[in-house]
Every structure is written in C-alpha cells, then in structure tokens.
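Recap from last week: sequence in, structure out.
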Amino acid sequence: MRRMEICTICPLHFERIPNRISEGVNCINKCNLSLVQMAPTLGDMQRNASRISESINTIVRQRPDTNLVVFPELALTGYECADLFPQIARRPEASGEIGLIRETAREKGIFVLLGYAEKGGGERVHNSLLLIGSDGNIAGNHRKVHLPPAEKGVFTQGDDYCLCETPLGRVGLLNCWDAAFPEVSRLYALSEADFLVVAAAWEEPYDEPWVLSVRSRALDNGLAVAAVNRVGKDKTLSFFGRSLFSDAMGKVLQEAPAGKECVIHQSLDLDSYRKQRETFSSQVLELRSDTYKLERVITRKA
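Predicted structure tokens:
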C-alpha cells in the first residue's frame, strides 16, 4: 500500500497545507450520510455481505439523495474470529463478498464504507476499512494503525492514514481505536479534510469514552464526524452501538439508541463548517508548532 494514496499528510511538525478553496478546488456544500448500526454474524461473510448489500438497496430506495453509507469495523466478518482471520482475510479486488457490495454501490451510484479483514503480504492480516466509490471502484483503503491489546498478534498494524479525495470532498478514515488519538484527526485537518468517518467495534462498557472521543475529535479540528459502532455479541464481547453524528463544534446532531440494530441519517452542511473554521473553530489556523516541544515544558516545584 502506497503511503497516502490520495494525498500527502503533513508530518508531526504540524505544517498546514495550502487552502484548496482559495485555489479554486471544487468542494460540495452538503453530504448526506447513513450509518448502519448492525450486528454482523460471526465468521459468516456471505450472510454479512448479503445483509450489507440489502441495507444499501433499502437506504437508497427510502432516501435516494444519500451519498455515503457507512458500516462498522469488521462488518464483513464479525470481531472475535481470532485464529480464523488468516483463512477468511480477503484482498478487496479479488473477493466475491466484496465484489457483491461493489456491484451494489455501482448499481445504486453510491459510496460505501465497510470494515473487513484484509489479506496483506505474506501471512499478514490487517483490520481495514474499504471505501467503495459510486462507480464500484475502490476509492480508499485504511489499515488500522492503533491496535488495542486484544488485536495485537491477530492483526498487523498499518502505518499510513488514508485521506480519500472524492466528489463528496476529502474524507478522513479512522478505524475504531484510531479515534482515541487526537494526532490522527489533526493530521487529517492539516491536510484539508472536509469531514471524518469512524467505523468501530467499540465494546461495552466503554460507551462514554466512545462518545467523548468522537465529539472531541470534531471540536479539536472544526470537522464534522460521522461515527458508526456495531451492536450485538460475538463470543466474549458485547457491543453497544450509540452511533452518532457530531457537528464541527462537538455537538451531537443525532445518536442511535444503544443495543439496537438501526440506521440513522444526517445531512452535513460542509460549507458552513468550512466558514466556521475561519472564525470560532480556528484551532488549525492558530497552531503554534514552534512551541510544541518537550523543552518548552517548564517544571516548577511548589
């Protein structure tokens, strides 16, 4: 996987890239999203792929103006597959299950994001997010960078961050625990992301840290965040849902109920958020990267 397939993200010295709007780059004003809060069937990829495809069809039929449908982390496999992952991991361009979803996206002319187990080089398996374009082609692939203890030894961590340049705008992808790290969203903000999407399998009883992480990443950067979390139980873990949309100031626009399969929809006013980043939500404009050094921390004894 090439480093930053779509564009180059700035390194950690927090240098801001040129403003796309001032350069005349086309940016849409609004984006209509649907978050599918589902309980995947553990290890049954055909069933999960069929359900994902059916959900897309239903959403487009009921809301034909939808631009992007988002499914949870590892929606294609379930979470606690452990030793089974090497056998069921797929390359996205050669998977029949993913092929079904890609064809549905193409037929409906809609973007789709879902989590799956990706077969990497050698024996490596990645916990990945796949963005499928409205033409059915692969628009982006993000390998989870920050692996919690339960995933170490199961997955190989990614090293790059996928910012997808699409007709919907620049979309920054975060896979579950990635959203707990402010640095990731800040890198996307510095690279002129228009909004962030989080797909998660965030387990009980950590629902408050989930909501706080999503809202904080929005407030930190003046970016709207669409965040889907799964429900149901695998083997030992249960997942609470509470998928949500946050505006660019960290306000919850809509939140799904806990423990229930459902779909929530939201129109994000990207144009108003861009203007807001020039006024109150101007953290990225006011960064003092010259001061963010350990030697600038002054310790005084009381």
